[in-house]
Amino acid sequence: MTRLLLIFTLLLTPFFAAAEEEIVLGLSQDKVAITAQFDGSDILIFGAVKREVAIPENELDVIIAIEGPTGPMVVRRKEKKFGIWINGAALEVDKAPAFYAVASSAPLADILRRIENERYQITVDKAIQSVSATVQFGNTQAFTEALMRIQANNGSYQLLEEAVEVDQQTLFRSSISLPSNLTEGDYNARIFLVRNGHVVADLETVIDVRKVGLERFLYNLAQEQAPIYGLLSILMAIAAGWGASALFRLIRDG
Amino acid sequence: MYIYLPIAEVSVNIFLLFGLGGIVGVLSGIFGVGGGFLITPLLFFVGIPPAVAVATSANQIVASSVSGLFAHLKRKTVDLRMGSVLLAGGLVGSAFGIMLFNYLKALGQVDLLVQLCYVIFLGVIGGLMFIESLRAIRRARKAGGVLRKRSQHNWVHGLPFKVRFRASGLYISVIPVLLVGACVGVLSAVMGVGGGFIMVPAMIYILGMPTKVVVGTSLFQIIFVAGFNTLLHAITNKTVDLPLALFLLIGGVVGAQFGSSIGVKLKAETLRILLALLVLSVCGKIALDLLLEPSELYTISRPNAAGGSQ
Fold it and tell me: Quick one: a GO cellular component term (chain B) (predicted)?
């Protein structure tokens, strides 16, 4: 999935009046095309810190968060009933991302204060909302933890501490790999500059993940022209079955 | 080499799909069954969401049945009238099966339904077949053993609405025929199978059809029921994955040709015992999944999305 190195600069409108440092960002690609051969993709995120003042004393850290399309998600717990394990209690999470990756230049606990995490909603647990379910269930923690655990195990939620390299307090770079079971949609990338546990600058950009070509065509057809797609599937099956028997008869007879 | 499946939304190795299709094709060629009961669980196993696996195998079954039917049409071993009556029942059953499938999917119990159907039907059929073929082997060992003639008249022959089925040499009521068709229709919608492994014994033992027309007739009926299921799954669930079906069936048709040449070298009783063991082991594997405590008690799924639970 090598693409032309596409660098675009985005200037941050000053978030704080007193923002002294700004992020200048580059992405190896701002579009991910899901083709038939798609097998995951690495996105290189790099940039520089632009500043008008001298480099401050304390250490600069960088956190990058990429969030895939969000939507409701159902978490079910298996329970033993009548001697077999079947789906029992279920919790509908209002909003959970299909993909979430956080990369940072040092362990998050060391560089980011909790209050700042609340404010900027950086870690994955902040991206999961289960408000309505909490009302119904009381304690939903076991379910949301299970959601995060399952998603972490299949590579959909990633916590990559010390995966961002910061050079001379000015340049930073990180590579985040998107798994092959990617859902299409807008992937929001947020970059935070952190000093002293506080976010001093942030920047947001969108990575567009789309099915293209045949994948796009078949998916759209299946969604929008379901009867035609169904008939097409059957026709293909009949043609393939007939073709196979005809072909093998030829081989056997010839 | 990987391919991203647009509906299942996962990327899978192409050769794995060819391989799966091929293995199932070889087995179906050896034993003369569609192999749907094998391919659906195997697809679960490689990480295809269950709803996509069930719908896509229905499509793949259309292809393998079409390919088999041509041979039978040539040999004139298809009872078209019987097939049409079975089909009428099958379509009703299949529509009902899809409704059941979608209702349980909304409840989050579709996996359980599919698994239970597998355990029960594979267990019963596999068990019966195993016992039957053991008996047949024992009978064959006794020198000059007399083959017991199946009773030609049972309760089925007392029912009204009798119709003559010439190719099968039967004059029976359409009620049991419609019922058999409907049951297979429900199962085939829910389990993503053609239902041959249920239909064939039912035709022989309940309807009393002669063995030579059984396979061709069931293939004829399966094509339409599986096609109908494909269409219903495509419209209501949007879970038919065309590329997935295509790769499976390429592997499948090639495998089936090898399988049938292996099949002719084996003895009929040995074949039946092996098939019974195969059916029972698939059944046992699924039963264990239900009985043993899973390592991950939780599953996640997106409501109303193609991907069932992961």
Answer: plasma membrane
Task: Write the pLDDT tens digit of every residue in B158-188.
Answer: 677 777 877 777 788 888 889 988 988 888 8
Sheet holding A165-167, edge to edge: A21-27, A41-51, A171-178, A165-167
**CA end-to-end span of chain B:** 23
C-alpha of A100 from chain center: 4
Whole-number Å distance between alpha carbons of A145 and B129: 46
CA distance A46 to chain B (A): 28
- Determine the residue among B2, B11, B112 to mutate to test chain A binding: the one whose Cβ has the most chain A Cβ atoms within 10 Å: B11
Q: How sure is the predictor about A254, in pLDDT bands with cuts at 50, 70 and 90?
A: low
C-alpha atoms less than 13 angstroms from C-alpha of B214 in its C-beta half-sphere: 20
Min Cα separation A17/chain B (Å): 42
Give every CB contact of residue B308 below 8 A, 6+ residues apart in sequence.
B49, B50, B51, B52, B105, B110, B111, B301
Q: Are A44 and A27 in contact (CB under 8 A)?
A: yes
Report the C-alpha gap between B209 and A65 in whole angstroms.
66
Q: Taking the model in full, what pTM does it have?
A: 0.76
Instruction: Choose the mutation target among B4, B61, B109, B310 for the interface with A, i.e. most A CBs under 10 Å.
Output: B4
CA distances from B188 to A37, A75, A122, B240 (A): 32, 28, 47, 15
Yes or no, beta carbons of A150 and B291 under 8 Å apart: no
The pair of structure tokens assigned to A28 is: 């190896």
Among A195, A192, A210, residue whose Cα is nearest residue A66 = A192
Least confident of A90-99, B12-21, B184-193, B295-304: B295-304
ipTM score of the complex? 0.78
**Euclidean distance between CA atoms A166 and A83, whole angstroms:** 55
- C-alpha–C-alpha distance, residues B149 and B129, integer Å: 18
Kindly tell me the sign of the dihedral angle through the C-alpha atoms of B283, B288, B291, B294.
negative
Helix (H) or strand (E) holding A131: helix A131-137
Instruction: Give me the DSSP letters along A32-54.
Output: EEE-TT---EEEEEEEEEEESSP
B3 to chain A: nearest residue by CA? A37
pLDDT tens profile B271-280: 778 888 888 8
Contact B63 A233 (CB under 8 A): no
